[in-house]
Design brief:
By secondary structure, the protein is of the alpha+beta class. It has four domains: about 10-155, Rieske Iron-sulfur Protein, CATH 2.102.10; about 170-275 and about 410-475, 3-Layer(bba) Sandwich (FAD/NAD(P)-binding domain); about 285-400, 3-Layer(bba) Sandwich (FAD/NAD(P)-binding domain); about 495-580, FAD/NAD-linked reductase, C-terminal dimerisation domain (Enolase-like, domain 1). Helices cover about 20% and strands about 30% of the residues. A hairpin with a 1-residue loop joins strand 26 and strand 27 (about 385-390). The structure holds flavin-adenine dinucleotide (FAD) and FE2/S2 (inorganic) cluster. FE2/S2 (inorganic) cluster binds near residues 92, 97, 111, 114 and 129. One of its GO terms (molecular function) is metal ion binding. Keywords: 2Fe-2S, FAD, Flavoprotein, Iron, Iron-sulfur, Metal-binding, Oxidoreductase. It comes from Paramecium tetraurelia. It holds the Pfam family Reductase_C. Its cofactor is FAD.
Length: about 600
């Protein structure tokens, strides 16, 4: 008989019929000396593992959260796909969203927070903002039961995919840029078995880190906490990272990058140079306490000053500006006045349109943020330090801190005379992210032909930067992999998330389904009569479903959406009926491809 070591365990079982999670049973039980057998399942708390049994009654395409341990997050996800049962971690390795609340399509579970997707067959991540996959756990089918064994140490441990380290392959891949895209490329090279030399060169003084929390959790984040991997990781996998090192020039003909007096020869080059926060050409823009937010040291300067600031002016009513306004106002409430200035008529007008932008403006106003819209900045005034911001409409705003959320300048300087630069400022590539012989570009700096339209686009999203690093690495290794995904981003303001998928540039129509006043809606962006993108708030899984529909090219017509002939549920059904399997071929590791 199995030995029970724990005296008490609270068990919660969440069943997830098809894809809609529902809490159906909550069972608290005390284990003394016998296995718990209730409602057709039992849990054993062994020394180093939990063993759980549930009824073997999942339907095809169903996923179910199964609580295995005492803490809320001690749960796994059991799924039935292609007639087989699979079990993976339930907690998303990004920031811990329960995957059971996400969307299972084919063998792919999509995270409800930021659209990461993982194959439930092997836990490998296909896309997302993070670098880790899911643990997988063995399941036995016995006497009408599914018996799941979960090693405790693996339960909520993020999984790093198998990688090789440096060997005797003489090939040298140089990656210029230590952002998430460069990091993703380096990891993918090692995952795919590349044993040559990898050098990441970054002008920043730190190892690659995640920038996205800086404008959302402004007062919480620490630099080390943002770092993607610790130093040992780079040592273990033989990845050289040259921090505080600026590449001054590149000789594409001779395949050299120049750093100071040194020439570093490459066999393959990845340009992942991202962008630099743009400082508009205005009088006074370089006064003290006028800051942009791109790097961690920018964040330190902003939060330092924000602690004592009485009047903050945010220039630019888009993502960085609005997120930072929300984070600072939330922290200091009435101690600080925050005014957001922009020449547009509502925030986010260019990306989200007037309706959705107006809704977000109201959300900010309800929380005390003020706006000066339709109002360009004339100059920033002060002596040494900023004191005021003068607007083109004649108003003058007092300011002891100015935050410039005025976009980025793509870092294309190194190659602008040698490679083609798109009008959007990105390094122009083909669909394989190749810019020239032996030269690739990925992340915020690449301008690539979007598969759905053929138009060159430059996308500034975290998921896309990670994905492109992955795609570029496979192409560097001679494994032809086109970039065929649907871009996704999220933004978080006042504890609400807006998620967006697609490429909506040049949209000429917006169809809103839902309640903008409550920020509970799905907005569809159409261009020339075709839905090209969508944004949503407070609508679970909307973008996870819509990004799949866009990828499968099964979005309903504008007319059907306008006349409400088709709902999100209908789109979900269409996506599910088409089926969809993990298509990433991640570095040859995905079991689904074998
Ligand atoms: C505050 C903030 C919040 C964000 N929030 C979100 C969000 O919520 N959702 C979302 O989807 N996206 C968000 N983004 C965007 C996302 O972070 C970017 O899309 C992503 O970081 C791009 O990664 P990258 O590797 O392409 O470029 P970058 O992160 O810009 O990295 C490029 C690196 O290259 C280095 N470099 C450039 N030139 C040289 C040179 N000559 N020599 C050496 N090194 C060089 C730079 O110093 C930098 O380290 C946010 C960005 C910021 C700044
Ligand atoms: S929590 Fe899953 S992608 Fe962010």
């Amino acid at each position: 008989m199995r030995k029970i070591l724990s005296s008490a365990i609270a068990i919660t079982l969440r069943r997830t019929p098809l894809v809609v999670p529902q809490r159906t049973q909550r069972i608290a039980a005390t284990l003394i000396s016998l296995p718990l057998i209730r409602y057709g399942f039992y849990t054993l708390n062994l020394n180093d593992a939990y063993e759980v049994s549930i009824e073997d009654n999942l339907n095809e395409g169903e996923m179910r959260e199964v609580q295995v341990g005492p803490k809320k997050e001690d749960a796994v996800l059991v799924c039935k796909v292609d007639g087989q049962i699979y079990c993976v971690s339930n907690s998303c390795p990004h920031v811990g969203a329960p995957l059971s609340a996400g969307f299972l399509v084919g063998d792919k579970v999509k995270c409800p927070f930021h659209n990461a997707s993982f194959s439930v067959k092997d836990g490998v991540h296909e896309e997302g903002p993070m670098f880790r996959g899911l643990q997988t756990f063995p399941v036995k089918q016995e006497n009408g039961q599914l018996v799941i064994r979960v090693e405790k140490q693996l339960l909520n441990a993020p999984r790093t995919l198998n990688m090789v380290t440096k060997g005797d392959d003489p090939t040298h891949v140089v990656i210029v840029g230590g952002g998430v895209s460069g990091q993703s490329a380096a990891e993918t090279l090692r995952q795919a078995g590349f044993r040559g030399k990898i050098t990441i060169i970054t002008a920043e003084d730190s190892l690659p880190y995640d920038r996205t929390p800086m404008s959302k959790m402004t007062f919480l984040v620490k630099q080390q906490g943002l770092q993607i991997r610790p130093q040992q990781f780079y040592e273990q996998y033989g990845i050289d990272v040259l921090t505080n090192t600026t590449v001054e020039s590149i000789d594409i003909n001779n395949q050299d990058v120049v750093v100071g007096k040194e020439k570093i020869h490459y066999d393959k080059l990845l340009l992942a140079t991202g962008g630099t926060a743009r400082r508009p050409q205005l009088d006074g823009v370089n006064l003290g306490n006028v800051h942009t937010l791109r790097q961690f040291n920018d964040l330190e300067s902003i939060r330092d000053k924000a602690k004592t600031a009485k009047n903050i002016v945010v220039v630019g009513a888009s993502f960085i500006g609005m997120e930072t306004a929300s984070a600072i106002k939330k922290e200091f409430k009435d101690q600080v006045n925050i005014t957001v200035v922009d020449s547009t008529t509502v925030p986010f007008e260019r990306v989200l349109g007037k309706e959705v932008g107006g809704s977000l403006q109201k959300l900010h106003e309800a929380n005390g943020v003020e706006f000066e819209l339709n109002a360009g900045v004339k100059r920033i005034g002060g002596v040494g330090q900023v004191q005021r911001v003068d607007l083109l409409n004649g108003k003058s705003l007092q300011a002891d801190l100015v935050i410039l959320g005025t976009g980025i300048q793509p870092n294309n300087k190194l190659v602008k005379d040698q490679l083609k630069i798109s009008p959007n400022g990105g390094i122009e590539t083909d669909v394989f992210l190749k810019a020239a012989k032996n030269v690739y570009a990925s992340g915020d700096i690449s301008s690539y032909p979007y598969w759905a339209t053929g138009e060159h686009v430059r996308i500034e999203h975290q998921n896309e930067a990670v994905r492109q690093g992955y795609v570029a690495a496979l192409n560097i290794l001679g494994k032809p992999t086109p970039l065929t995904d649907v871009p996704f981003f999220w933004t978080r303001q006042w504890d609400r998330t807006l998620a967006y998928s697609g490429v909506g540039q040049g949209f000429d129509e917006v169809i809103v389904d839902g309640d903008l006043t409550q920020q509970k809606f799905v907005a569809y962006y159409a261009r020339k009569g075709r839905v090209v993108a969508s944004a949503s708030m407070n609508t679970p899984n909307a973008q996870m479903i819509i990004s799949e529909a866009l990828r499968l090219n099964v979005m309903p017509s504008v007319e059907d959406l306008k006349e409400k002939k088709v709902s999100l549920d209908d789109i979900k059904k269409i996506v599910l009926s088409k089926g969809s399997s993990c298509h990433c071929k991640r570095a040859g590791q995905c079991q689904a491809q074998l």
